[in-house]
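User: Is it possible to get a 3D structure for a protein together with its bound compound? The compound here is manganese (II) ion. I've pasted both below.
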Amino acid sequence: MIYFASDIHLGSGDIARQRATEQRFVKWLESIEPTAEVLFLLGDIFDFWFEYKRVVPKGFVRTLGQLAKMAERGTRIVMLTGNHDMWVGKYLTEECGIELYTTPQTFDIKGLKLYLSHGDNTNIKGQPMLRVMNRFFRSKSLRVLASWLIHPDLFLRFGQWWSGSSRKAHTEQTDLKYLDPLIEFAKGYYEQPIDHFVFGHIHIPHQRDNITFLGEWSKAASWAELDDNGIITLKTK
Ligand SMILES: [Mn+2]
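Assistant: Yes, that's possible. Here is the predicted structure of the complex:
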């Protein structure tokens, strides 16, 4: 079985909520471990992640341990970064065996050509401010500079504040109109024939035609499964 999840936002909320979300996620990982051939994590797994050359954010040990264990036992774990955790370095690959990408990817799985993306950096032509911010946040040199100039405690404090405010604008939305830009993108994608698109980011679990949107994890586990018949199903628990 192939599994897809995104927007766990580990580390968000107060301590009790952080722990509850992580428990929910780790329990789910344990439950899929026997059947998971591939696990696709489509971004915003962490509410904020910034990695220095020798320093990573505190916490998440249950999650990282479980992911490392699954990778060692043969599950292919692929992570595409989201707008909350795009500043990953080599740590998750070297320590946990996770295959990491910072851009949308296509994969041939179970006879399907899949287009996978977090969804944040897509179809934002009409939003110049977002485009500028995206370039700024994704700049490699800026990131290296910041990691040399800014003390980790200061940067993480800023990041957690920024993540909180950006997520609040996001978590509660339920109006399906928020899916429109990504649907428009998928419908207009002609670079190669795609059988199915999977996105995170919008926090609304939904399927339309050959597009699957993944939900978020603050209240329940929310994921998608691709079975041997090439069918993708959304699930919550
Ligand atoms: Mn998110």
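The chain has a mean pLDDT of 92. Residues 152-171 form the longest helix (20 residues).
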